[in-house]
Write a structure and sequence with these properties.
Blueprint (H helix, E strand, L loop, with lengths): L2 H15 L2 E6 L8 E5 L6 H9 L5 E5 L6 H9 L2 E4 L11 H13 L3 E4 L17 H12 L7 E9 L8 E6 L3 E2 L4 H6 L1 H18 L7 H16 L6 H17 L2 H20 L17 H35 L6 H28 L2 H33 L1 H22 L2
Parallel strand pairs: 1-7, 2-5, 2-6, 3-4, 3-5
Antiparallel strand pairs: 6-7, 6-8
Length: 422
């Protein structure tokens, strides 16, 4: 009952939080029993992206510690969450038998289950060792139907341009589904071995659709180089762009240390110069008026006052969200999800307060409701246009600095491309 309206809200919020959400790869399995297995680099954002990607309802296996009280447990179950008991949480893991049976029963009814087989969010550009839970649930469901169920396991790889930043981009890369019919005979004689083989196959499929940058320093460099190429529109999406960058980092590591250190310092210096202008470094630096048609320019001029007004109105919750996350959230893995959830709460309260004030002044509930709706629409327009306005204003008032930054980026990208051919 709660899942469908929540899904609509989640899709709306994700479209505001991310600048771009790309769904690529194989066709989504939209009918029949399905087990979705995904990598888990970004805590809360990963399950929300799966909800937003698949049009069909899905049930999620979630850590049991979230089900802290009967009231919260009832809400979470209404949101299609099923508790999983992990050893690191110091709970009775034998309770997983009941949860796995519940999940298998749902699959037997043709439902979709989502599981993150790494068992925990890593916050890194690599795939961790997989738990066997996904394979166990799949085999249990098929075994109950004598392997005639037709269950499909669909791996999903989630790749973020940046893990923590608001208005970054994300790619959800979908692999072709796995079927279990080939293991039917073997499962009867050696179920443990079948579970191991299926887990290894899931791991191999996920590695094909995720980005592997095992070293923290290399991951940071790959992310920044990816942002540089994104600013030029290179690559179809985050997955394809960062995959190329990650592979070529090995070539950069193989050159002499002086040249390598110079490149790294120049990359860092570019982002410092971008930050001095209030930019993140992945923006398209081409003057917007040069690549816009006259209708687009006239529309931009018409929308600009709204974007400026919206930026002023939205500044308090935007700033408070950043302050809250930087001071209260210690685990980097939780930063992205904390920004989204705190932003939802603070923007909702702020718009509610402004609408309440309007209602008090006008003595009209209708005007208060209309004000709230208008503020939400204004925030959406601002979110979509304010960065373009920022680039335009920077070219208008700081043309020399923008031209210098653009030249610096061009030379840096040219040198990086030359290094990859060495």
């Amino acid at each position: 009952m709660m899942y469908h309206p929540a899904r609509i809200f989640i899709r709306f919020v994700l479209r505001q939080f991310f600048a771009r959400i790309n769904v690529t790869g194989a066709k989504l399995v939209d009918f029949g029993p399905l087990l979705i297995v995904a990598n888990h680099p970004n805590d809360l954002l990963d399950p929300l992206l799966v909800v937003g990607t698949y049009p069909r309802p899905a049930w999620f296996l979630a850590k049991s510690t979230l089900f802290s009280t009967p009231f919260i447990a009832a809400i979470l179950r209404g949101m299609h969450l099923v508790p999983v008991f992990r050893r690191q949480d110091n709970v009775d893991v034998t309770k997983n038998d009941e949860s796995f049976k519940f999940a298998a029963d749902l699959i037997s009814l043709g439902k979709a289950i989502v599981i993150f087989p790494e068992g925990a969010s890593l916050g890194e550009r690599r795939l961790g060792p997989l738990k066997t839970g996904a394979a166990r649930i799949a085999c249990q469901a098929e075994h109950l139907a004598n392997f005639t169920l037709g269950l499909k396991i669909q791996p999903v790889g989630i790749t973020y341009s940046q893990f923590k930043r608001f208005r970054s981009s994300v790619t959800v890369h979908v692999a072709e589904p796995i079927t279990l019919i080939d293991w039917a005979a073997q499962y009867e004689s050696n179920p443990r071995e079948v579970v191991r083989e299926i887990t290894e196959l899931i791991s191999a499929k996920l590695r094909e659709i995720t980005i592997e940058v095992p070293l923290t320093g290399a991951a940071h460099l790959a992310e920044r180089i990816g942002m540089l190429f994104q600013s030029l529109g290179v690559g179809r999406d985050e997955w394809s762009r960062l995959r190329i960058v990650a592979r070529n980092l090995a070539q950069i590591e193989s050159i002499d240390s002086a040249t390598r250190d110079d490149i790294i310092q120049r990359v860092d210096r570019y982002f410092e110069h971008a930050a001095e202008l209030g930019l993140d470094g992945d923006e398209n630096l081409t003057p917007w008026v040069r690549r816009a048609t006259w209708p687009m320019t006239l529309m931009a001029l018409a929308i600009s006052p709204l974007a400026i007004l919206g930026a002023i109105i939205c500044y308090p919750p935007y700033k408070l969200t950043g302050i809250y996350v930087s001071r209260m959230v210690r685990d980097p893995v939780e930063h992205g999800g904390a920004k989204l959830s705190a932003g939802v709460v603070l923007y909702t309260l702020w718009f509610g307060l402004l609408a309440f004030i309007v209602g008090l002044i006008t003595h009209s509930i209708l005007l208060a409701v209309l004000t709230y709706v208008e503020l939400v629409l204004l925030a959406v327009v601002t979110n979509r246009t304010v960065w373009r306005l920022q680039i335009w204003l920077l070219w208008l008032f700081k043309p020399l600095s923008m031209a210098a930054l653009r030249r610096e980026r061009g030379q840096l990208i040219y040198d990086l491309q030359a290094l990859r051919t060495v």
